[in-house]
Amino acid sequence: MGDAQEDLEPRFPSRKAQSMLPAFSTCCTELISSWESKLAGSDGSHEIDIWEDFQNLTGDVISRTSFGSSFMEGRRIFQLQAEQAERIIKAFQYMYIPGYLFFPTENNKRMKQINREIEGLLRGIIEKRERAMENDGLSSGNDLLGLMLQSNKESGTSRMRMSTEDVIEECKLFYFAGMETTSVLLTWTLVVLGMHPEWQDRAREEVLSVFGKDKPNFDGLGRLKTVTMILYEVLRLYPPAVTLNRKTSRQMQIGGITYPAGVLLELPIIMVHHNPDVWGKDVLEFKPERFAEGISKATKDQPVFFPFGWGPRICIGQNFAMLEAKMALSMILQRFEFQLSPSYTHAPYTVITLHPQHGAQIILKSL
Ligand code: HEM
Predict the structure, then answer these.
(1) Which residues, in sequence order, are bridge partners of residue 315?
(2) What's the pTM?
């Protein structure tokens, strides 16, 4: 994984994320059309659970951007991984029983079966692409799989070269790392903009002044200041990844305390983001204006805002995620206004990432 990280890191700057823009826009257009058809058959407003819709959206984006033309197989893989995540959480409840994962329970058997199916599908996609690159001289393509295989080809026989198993593991990681997190960000953003219509209006005004009703483009997305402030404030209040976990590899001193090797450490991002000593008494309030002059002004140059992690293992998909979120939010604001449904209950809770426990129901209206 370390090598893969070194390999991939330079491949996700914003110019690479830019090449993913057509995939973002195709997937967002599908979502918008499905909302428009729901509204067409209604009396002008319609309740939807954005939690499910955004998971489908970000799953589609990851499928298209990971596997390009093999997008439908990719979609099946990500559906299986979603099922797997739920089953892992179920299994966690019994982890106190030693060796539980080896018991032939229905859940454990299905988890093994899912793993085999995912690996088989991924192996098929990878081999098909490698064959196309070798035999037909086709380019690796501009999707994430293509970037990895191209990078592998360029590393020749060096130790940086990833095995098929490594590539499979990377592809699986994209789902967990890239799909859940971005759908969480979009979900809390709409929830919060439903709670604060004044910020929803300000964001819409900005989007309409930059794009009108046209399809958002890369340059314009980079100029959205209010939208960026809103996304940062949502990432502060509702960081999709609530903690970072580390294990000491050797005896070391941290904050004046000496830890032996093998100690598990947890850095609670969410608690640092909610610390009144850092952010002020209004720490729990949604105030995007904190970020009006950027992150370093908002944090007074302290390392207190790190929704994408920090240091050598910082998220490699942060430009990708921010661009995807800006594209989706802009296209939604161009066409709809929304408010929270009376059936919505505010209950953020952690299932690996920060979910809305009872869904995120909003009432949608066409503009
Ligand atoms: C709002 C969206 C996202 C958030 C909040 C987020 C957050 C994070 C965080 C906190 C880490 C660091 C984990 C650690 O240090 O232990 C991380 C790592 C990672 N992220 Fe993201 N992420 C997001 C989107 C994405 C996307 C879209 C992708 C892929 C396209 C992605 C790929 C990765 C990968 C591969 C790693 C692992 C890097 C490594 O282990 O070295 N992430 N992410």
Answers:
(1) none
(2) 0.88
Interface confidence, given as ipTM, is 0.98
Residues with CB under 6 A from ligand 1: 5, 173-174, 177-178, 181-182, 185, 240-241, 244, 307-309, 313, 315-317, 320-321
Q: Ligand 1 pocket: which of 14, 315, 319, 326 to mutate (most atoms <8 Å of CB)?
A: 315
Annotated binding-site ranges for heme: 315
The rounded Å distance from CA 317 to ligand 1 centre is: 6
Smallest CA separation from ligand 1 atom 17, residue? 315
Closest CA to 110 of 86, 93, 92: 86
Q: How far apart are CA 179 and CA 176, in angstroms?
A: 6
Residue 21: what residue type? L
Q: What is the pLDDT of residue 1?
A: 33
- The predicted-structure confidence for 61-100, as pLDDT tens digits, reads as follows 988 888 877 777 887 887 888 888 888 888 888 877 888 8
Averages of pLDDT over each 10 residues, the chain, 367 residues: 37 68 93 95 92 91 83 82 84 81 89 94 88 71 80 71 84 81 97 98 98 96 97 98 94 94 95 96 97 94 94 88 96 98 95 90 96
Binding positions are 315
Residues near 317 by Cβ (< 8 Å), separated by ≥ 6? 12, 174, 177, 178
Amino acid at 267: L
